[in-house]
Amino acid sequence: MELAAGISAASSALEIAKAMRQIGKDYDAVVIKGQVVDLMDKLLDVKTALQDAKAETEAKDHEIEQLKQAAQVRVETVERHGMRFRASQVREGEPQGLPFCSRCDQVDGRMITTADNGRGVKCPQCKATFEHARFYLWDND
Ligand SMILES: [Zn+2]
Predict the structure, then answer these.
(1) CA of 98 to the centre of ligand 1 (A)
(2) Domain residues of the chain, as ranges?
(3) Could you tell me the pTM of the whole model?
(4) How far is ligand 1, taken at its centre, from the CA of residue 72, in Å?
């Protein structure tokens, strides 16, 4: 949005500059001053839009970094019956404990461990329930 506003303001500034280039002798100083004020106003809009776009880009970079870290966690997980689990430390390739919430994983890219609610599992974060979810509790894990 900020970039679109910046591009629009830059286009307006260019139009004003083009008009000023074609100024003839019939224009007086008041008209020229007015156009300079308009030009400065549009350039200020461009500067503000670029600052906003810079802040938004930095926020996205931060989010990408968080998602990369979340993706690294996946290396140590095992998928079973459509749900993702922490990998067992004692049984290679086997899941351990309660599954992570599929909804939080897919929507937010976050690995939230669900809790047993008696009929399946429930996410403490988004409250999604998974009625037929299984969980794996090994003696030595
Ligand atoms: Zn969730």
Answers:
(1) 13
(2) 2-73, 76-130
(3) 0.49
(4) 19
